[in-house]
Amino acid sequence: xxxxxxxxxxxxHDGMPLEVISQLVAWGHRVDVLRPGGSLLRMSxxxxxxxxxxxxxxxxxxxxxxxxxEAAAAVGLTTxxxxxxxxxxxxxxxxxxxxxxxxxPMPTTYAAAxxxxxxxxxxxxxxxxxxxxxxxxxxxxxxxxxxDRLAAMTGQLAGQGMLVAQPYVPNSGVDxxxxxxxxxxxxxxxxxxxxxxxxxxxxxVALPAEVAATVARVGAVYGLDxxxxxxxxxxxxxxVVDVNDFPSFRQVPQAAARVxxxxxxxxxxxxxxxxxxxxxxxLVPEQQPGxxx
Length: 293
What we know:
- It is a single chain.
- Helix 3 (65-74) packs antiparallel against helix 4 (83-90).
- The chain has 293 residues and is α+β, with helices and mostly antiparallel strands.
- The chain is built from nine helices and 13 strands.
- Helix 1 (15-26) links the parallel strand 1 and strand 2.
């Protein structure tokens, strides 16, 4: 097979996806690598129908790679993940709106173009978790305990673009990160960015059935094939607090080989470029996430 990987500058030396690319090449496949953030792109020639079996994007929020992936999808090429699905989770405000409307257990989410507008959130919703709508890897995530503290943090929050704010979900200080690759789910524990002093050894852990069902629904709702979900185990069950397309897959056994096989299967079947990104079949009665609301 011939594949095209779009690798943003942030990931050009990263094991994921470089190890996946190396694995595919070792298996005899041809892999072309484009660096959207470090190369002049001749858009009229880079994207040609039938030039590759699939295009794969490892992106950062707001990176130029998504534009190129969308161009590939527009001419009928298979993309991993679906370009519209990536757009649907990269904007955290949009992701929350989609997820809540489909009944996923996600917190109430407020969005504000400037931090001063967050002052309109009722005091009863505090403490709040505030983060950039286009953030990733825990960047800019902060816990705001009170309206007074929010007012003092206005300068710190300025200049980050659209912000989202969600009521804090009481939890143990341990984040559960669940990865989906090749239809299989793998759960890992890690330290929460909100509790950096909490000693947590990152490791693979058993996946509770309730969490597995929730994560599978996440993939169906957003139309993702390779993805990760950040889950908090709150007082009333699992709460989805973030969704990532093509994550790091840390602690997944033989991650490079598993991801490589999944990419090949998606390229063969043409999944990842279907017309129904948010399929009606994924609609379920809305469920509120209890203490997160």
